[in-house]
């Protein structure tokens, strides 16, 4: 509901085209204190144009502004403050939400254009790290939000499945590995082979050379190398898929780094043709001094390509495939320099679309204040962490509601929801402390709290005897409900802001506040009381369930009807 627009129109009619309507709308503010009204228009700009004091203009205009949408419009200093007509607004907002259902809050500014989202992107033969978990959760939410704004999304898992480390892995496997052990516990076994390689290589210089030869063989399509690589990839992906299944995250493409192996020559050729490649210490680079950045390494002296070469090639391929309007890379902040370099090289190559690419960085996950790391055997097995969360959620449910049907399904929603919400409630650049106990609490700023509020609202609707209420919405709501209606009204704006800021936390914050407001309302008002305005109270509760469910869904969290 765009009451700002209505207010802007009303004012604009009195301005004799001094300001365009859009500008009037942009000037409208929300007053600091509720008693000052719901909307405020500052008269400073008009004062300049009309050479009168803003106070004077505010007084003058105030008498001319009248609309059934506003119960009062008054001048306060240089501002003209407007008080919305509560019944009218209540009725309009509730009816709109009832009509639109889960579509409420959707936008069309995406115009069906493509947004490519590169997220999760773990590395083959290495554990799925906490950083990859953040990327997965944030990327998935951003994709949902982009869709809600009218974009088509392409979700890409840019697997780390190429690079010299695969030469090392092949050597280690051939020397010390066993097929059975890899099959039994692929990631753990492959990681320990990789670690073993490094320990042994300190004693035996030959190993590095051997690894280089094997990676070269792999690049050249040697059969044995290819088969081993394919097998490592398959086993790893199988493990990662378990995590995606638990989180209900899907991808449209798993084209990882290896996919670009046979496409990089062309990228290098383009760079040569454009005279952008320079030799430096035997390697090929693109100079980026003009941007105050270190050079971007394209090819090593032995001809091997690098991470950046693959990202450049991937960008070219994606543009050709999808003609994206926007391209997001949801990757930890430690790769900021890399993405700046890649985007700048594309810019130097003359691709104007490079401007539509954005690196979306995020902070670390901490445990007792320290970065949770996957190096040196300190592996945190993510699948086990998620399963633990589900188990703890189940215990909580057993205590609270032992007779709940379908406990396992609900525990899954709550356990996973707790992890996701805990991540997304923070501004993404912040580091976050990982505590299962904290995130699973049913009280406070947690996923389970929002889910529980949703389930409580659903249960009220189930208990309502009056079922034909949709027709009798009048807009008469207790004063306690006004804050909620005003908040419900904001949902579309919150979605838009979260999209432009790449910040799902906007939605998480909003949902928590809405849940709090509803619980306050629930404590003060007898919702199912059979007196007047029951239809409006039920409509309000229904509207809350719609917005909570959709908001959670945008974050990638399911909403249980009972809990
Ligand atoms: N595999 C990389 C890592 O784990 C992340 C890849 C991100 N995406 C990209 N297009 N570079 O660090």
Structural class: alpha/beta
Bound molecules: arginine
Task: Quote the CATH topology of the largest domain.
Answer: Rossmann fold
The count of strands amounts to 13
Describe the protein.
54% of the residues lie in helices and 10% in strands. The protein has 563 residues and is an alpha/beta fold. The chain has a four-stranded parallel sheet with strand order 5-4-9-10. Strands 1-3-2 form a three-stranded antiparallel sheet. The model has no long low-confidence stretch (mean pLDDT 94). The site of arginine has 9 residues, from loops.
Question: How do you describe this structure in short?
Answer:
The protein is of the alpha/beta class. Helix content is 54%, strand content 10%. Helix 6 crosses helix 19 and helix 7 packs across helix 9.
Summarize the topology.
Layout: H1 3-12, H2 21-27, E1 39-42, H3 44-50, H4 54-62, E2 70-76, E3 79-84, H5 86-100, E4 114-118, H6 130-148, E5 152-156, H7 165-176, H8 179-184, H9 186-203, H10 206-219, H11 223-247, H12 264-273, E6 277-280, E7 283-286, E8 296-299, H13 307-322, E9 326-330, H14 336-348, E10 357-360, E11 365-367, E12 370-371, H15 382-400, H16 407-424, E13 432-433, H17 436-439, H18 447-463, H19 479-500, H20 505-524, H21 534-555
Parallel strand pairs: 4-5, 4-9, 9-10, 11-13
Antiparallel strand pairs: 1-3, 2-3, 6-7, 7-8, 11-12
The structure holds arginine.
């Amino acid at each position: 509901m765009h009451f700002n627009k209505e207010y802007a129109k009303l004012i604009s009619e009195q301005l004799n085209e001094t300001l365009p309507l859009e500008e009037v709308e942009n000037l409208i503010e929300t007053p600091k204190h509720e008693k000052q009204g719901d909307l405020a228009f500052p008269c400073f700009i008009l004062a300049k144009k009309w050479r009168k004091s803003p106070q004077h203009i505010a007084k003058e205009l105030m008498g001319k502004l009248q609309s059934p949408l506003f119960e009062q419009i008054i001048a306060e200093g240089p501002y003209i403050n407007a008080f919305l007509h509560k019944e009218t607004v209540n009725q309009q907002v509730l009816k709109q939400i009832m009509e639109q259902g889960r579509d409420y809050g959707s936008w069309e500014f995406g115009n069906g254009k493509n947004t490519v989202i590169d997220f999760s992107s773990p590395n083959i033969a290495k554990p799925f790290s906490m950083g990859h978990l953040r990327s997965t959760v944030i990327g998935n939410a951003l994709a949902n939000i982009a869709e809600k704004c009218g974009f088509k999304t392409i979700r890409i898992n840019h697997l780390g499945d190429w690079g010299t480390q695969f030469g090392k892995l092949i050597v280690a496997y051939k020397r010390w590995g066993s097929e059975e052990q890899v099959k039994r516990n692929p990631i753990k076994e492959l990681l320990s082979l990789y670690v073993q390689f490094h320990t042994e290589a300190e004693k035996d210089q030959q190993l590095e050379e051997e690894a280089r030869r094997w990676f070269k063989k792999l690049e050249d399509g040697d059969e044995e190398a290819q088969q081993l690589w394919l097998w490592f990839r398959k086993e790893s992906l199988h493990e990662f898929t378990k995590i995606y299944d638990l989180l209900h995250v899907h991808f449209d493409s798993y084209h990882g780094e290896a996919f670009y192996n046979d496409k990089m020559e062309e990228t290098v050729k383009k760079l040569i043709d454009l005279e952008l490649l320079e030799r430096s210490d035997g390697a090929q680079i693109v100079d980026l001094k003009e941007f105050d950045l270190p050079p971007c390494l394209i090819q090593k002296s032995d001809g091997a390509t690098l991470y950046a070469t693959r990202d450049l090639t991937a960008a070219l391929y994606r543009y050709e495939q999808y003609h994206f309007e926007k391209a997001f890379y949801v990757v930890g902040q430690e790769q900021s320099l890399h993405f700046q370099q890649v985007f700048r090289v594309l810019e130097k190559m003359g691709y104007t679309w490079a401007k539509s690419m954005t690196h979306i960085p995020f902070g670390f996950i901490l445990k007792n204040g320290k970065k949770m790391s996957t190096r040196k055997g300190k592996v945190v097995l993510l699948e086990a962490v998620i399963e633990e969360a589900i188990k703890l959620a189940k215990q909580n449910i057993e205590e609270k509601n032992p007779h709940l049907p379908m406990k396992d399904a609900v525990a899954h929603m709550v356990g996973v929801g707790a992890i996701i919400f805990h991540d997304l409630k923070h501004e993404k650049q912040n580091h976050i402390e990982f505590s299962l106990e904290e995130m699973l609490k049913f009280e406070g700023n947690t996923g389970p709290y929002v889910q529980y509020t949703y389930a409580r609202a659903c249960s009220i609707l189930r208990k309502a005897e009056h079922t034909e209420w949709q027709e009798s919405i009048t807009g008469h709501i207790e004063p306690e409900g006004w804050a909620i209606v005003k908040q419900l009204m904001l949902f579309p704006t919150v979605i838009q802001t979260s999209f432009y800021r790449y910040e799902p936390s906007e939605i998480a914050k909003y949902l928590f506040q809405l849940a709090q407001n509803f619980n306050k309302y629930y404590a003060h008002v007898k919702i199912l009381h059979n007196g007047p305005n029951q239809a409006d109270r039920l409509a309000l509760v229904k509207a809350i369930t719609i917005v909570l469910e959709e908001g959670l869904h945008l974050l990638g969290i399911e909403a249980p009807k009972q809990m």
